[in-house]
Amino acid sequence: MEEPPTTWTVPGKYAFTLVSDCGERALIGKFRVTVESDKVTRAEGLDDAARRAMMLRLANLVPTLRQLEDEAETARREGAEVVQVERDISDAHPVRIVIDKSASAADDESCYTIEDYTIGLAAEPSATPSR
């Protein structure tokens, strides 16, 4: 039986739904994200919190999956108390990332759930996301 992959190979084009639901920061809510050549080409707020965040018009507010992985790795290098990256068993793309720099500090957490991951340019979540 083959072992599941431990590293994710970033496809040229992909889409996903990002749920960012903890911490005090601009990136809060549920977003649909399309990525081409490792750059976000489309981001849409799917709930009120995400739509408010998008109204801020901050450059690079919504990250790619590689940027989320980099955020976790940077936090690990800098000594964050909690860094958890859960991966999909079929291709190792991240499905959940939790970062807490200091367990004793309030609102410094970052919590991301990745859903509806599809390879290619899917503007909407697929009925059967590749997992």
Note the topology:
Layout (H helix, E strand, L loop, with lengths): L12 E8 L8 E8 L2 E7 L2 H8 L9 H13 L4 E6 L6 E7 L8 E11 L12
Antiparallel strand pairs: 1-2, 1-6, 2-3, 4-5, 5-6
Keywords: Coiled coil
Report on the structure:
Pfam families: DUF6174. InterPro entries: DUF6174. The C terminus is likely disordered. This protein has two helices and six strands. The chain is globular, with a radius of gyration of 15 Å. A hairpin with an 8-residue loop joins strand 5 and strand 6. It has 131 residues and is α+β, with helices and mostly antiparallel strands. Strands 3-2-1-6-5-4 form a six-stranded antiparallel β-sheet. The chain has one domain.
Which tags fit this structure?
131 residues, alpha+beta, six-stranded antiparallel β-sheet, 36% strand, globular, coiled coil, DUF6174
What general form does the structure show? globular
Strand content: 35-45%
Quick check: average pLDDT? 88
How far apart are the termini? 18 Å
**Largest sheet features:** 6 strands, antiparallel
| Total beta strands | 6
- What is the number of helical segments per DSSP (H or I, 4+ residues)? 2
* Helix percentage range: 10-25%
Structural class: alpha+beta
How many domain units? Answer: 1
| Side-by-side strand order of the widest sheet | 3-2-1-6-5-4
Low-confidence spans: 126-131
- Topology order in helix (H) and strand (E) letters: EEEHHEEE
Q: Radius of gyration, Cα only, in angstroms?
A: 15 Å
